[in-house]
Amino acid sequence: MLKLLYKFIRNAKKIYIHKIKRIYYNYIVRMMAKKVGNNLSVNNKSVISTNTILGNNVNFNGMDIKGGGKVSIGNNFHSGPGCLILTRFHNYNNGTAIPYDDTYIYKDVQIKDNVWFGSRVIILGGVNIGEGVIIQAGSVVVSDIPDYAIAGGHPAKVFKYRDVDHYKKLKEQGKFH
Description:
The N and C termini lie far apart (about 40 Å). About 25% of the residues lie in helices and about 30% in strands. The strands form five sheets. It has a five-stranded parallel sheet, with no helix packed on it. The protein has a five-stranded mixed sheet with strand order 7-12-15-17-18, with no helix packed on it. Strands 5-8-13-16 form a four-stranded parallel sheet, with no helix packed on it. By secondary structure, it is α/β, with parallel strands linked by helices. It has helices at about 1-30, 165-170; strands spanning about 35, 40, 50-55, 60, 65, 70-75, 80, 85, 90, 105, 110, 115, 120-125, 130, 135, 140, 150-155, 155-160. It has two helices and 18 strands. It is globular.
């Protein structure tokens, strides 16, 4: 009986610590973001730039947004752990030194509604990700991904599309996770 009590206390402690961390991560993202919609859920360590705009029902399970470029994330976004968005790049082409100089190039990222990133997805600046897109875990997105596409790889390529009629039916019914 005593063993069971210790196990219960240990599990309760873990749950309590996880809840405290979630509250802290939510607070940090809210303070850093330029704008935040309703129902933000930050379940794991996430750091974003001050030039980030978040829609409603955004769920981060580990997001790192770096650089000074604008990042706009639409409604009902979900990310797996370890995701990264980069919006600042070294000036190597027209700079005053090799391999690069002290200036930076900033590129914006736009992510539309109902997008899902698997674990460890990397998005490079200058990319637009369409509505309803799914990006496979471990992918590096270097160019635009059209609406309803499922893409993956390094660099990410579209290999399939969602059933658009089914997607639109669920969207019309307001069935969002």
